[in-house]
Amino acid sequence: MNNDVGYDALRGRLQNPCFEIIPLKGVEKQVEHIPAGSDVAITCSPDKGIPATLDLTRRLRDRGFTLIPHIAARMVADEADLRDIVGQLDDLGIRRVFVVGGDAEQPVGRFDSSLQLLRAMSDIDHGMEIVGIGAYPEGHPLIDDQTLLRYLKAKQPYASYMITQMCFDPEVIVGWLRRVRAEGVDLPVHIGVPGVAERAKLLKIALKIGVGQSKRFLKSNRGLVGRMMAPGGYSPDELLLALAGHFDTPPSNIEGVHFYSFNQIESTEEWRAEMLARLGGGKDLSP
After folding, report:
1. How far apart (Å, rounded) are the C-alpha atoms in residues 243 and 43?
2. pTM higher than 0.70
3. 14 half-sphere exposure, CB direction, 13 A CA radius
4. pLDDT tens track of the chain, all 287 residues?
5. CA distance 40 to 259
6. Which residue, 245, 119, 276, 109, is CA-closest to 173?
7. Count of CB atoms within 10 A of residue 200's CB?
8. Cβ density class 98-137: b for 16+ within 10 Å, e for less
9. Which of 43, 58, 64, 123 is nearest to 90 (CA)?
10. What's the N-to-C CA distance of the chain in angstroms?
11. Measured distance CA(266)–CA(212) in Å, rounded
12. In which region does residue 25 sit, left (phi positive, over 0), alpha (psi from -120 to 50) or beta (all else)?
């Protein structure tokens, strides 16, 4: 594909990305750097739980964003708890959610997986119109690839799109997309990439959300620590430029970019503005 075509596609995705944030002290100050009208996903951490996610959703409701709170299956006690959660979201006018299994070591109730929760949600009257799910290009340390594919196909009827977990290898992402497309998974895909974060700040955030105590999280994010703790921090230039030619090309058809910001919105947004300027400058940006 012509580089200009790929760069145009990447520029389009970077103009309207999703910013994922964590419900921690100080996050509302960082949110001020997110452009009005942006998609903003709000996570559930093992340490903070769903109440913190709902509380931050409530506080950001009038900021002009499209809010996408996470519902972590392993943090939902039962059907009554699920009804209460989606009821609160309905009252807030939320129409998009992201359903994930969650990083809690042990489920608090009967839901152990996102598939179980999605099925339970389908039996509840609610106003959620768009539902996102996670996907694993590099696999999962606790689940074999065939089981992951079977679960992904089973979740597809309940979902509107999928977001890839962090992967730093564009060839792995493209190869995975070809395989799941061949197996009949046609959900739009949003590429999940880390934002731009300094090492010290990243470590501070990790400790606050309980990452140091969560073996499940660490096992599910192989390579994250090494890549993001490298001198100078991490920026997604190389990964996104390598994927640029696949954004509008079958079978990949990559619909969007999802920033795992670790609440480092200011630095991520500065990088995004610089990258958009470079992409609009007609330069050869091939990695």
Report:
1. 26
2. yes
3. 27
4. 445 678 999 999 999 999 999 999 899 999 999 999 999 999 998 788 999 999 999 999 999 999 999 999 999 999 999 999 999 999 999 999 999 998 778 899 999 999 999 999 999 999 999 999 999 998 887 789 999 999 999 999 999 999 999 888 899 999 999 999 999 999 999 999 988 877 666 556 655 554 444 444 445 454 555 555 555 566 789 899 999 999 998 888 799 999 999 899 999 999 999 999 999 865 556 54
5. 10
6. 245
7. 10
8. bbbbbbbeebbeebebbbbbbebbeeeebebeebbbbbbb
9. 58
10. 15
11. 25
12. beta
SS3 readout for 186-238: CCCEEEEEECCECHHHHHHHHHHCCHHHCHHHHHHCCCHHHHHCCCCCECCHH
Report whether 188 contacts 253 (CB < 8 A).
yes
**Length of the chain in terms of residues written:** 287
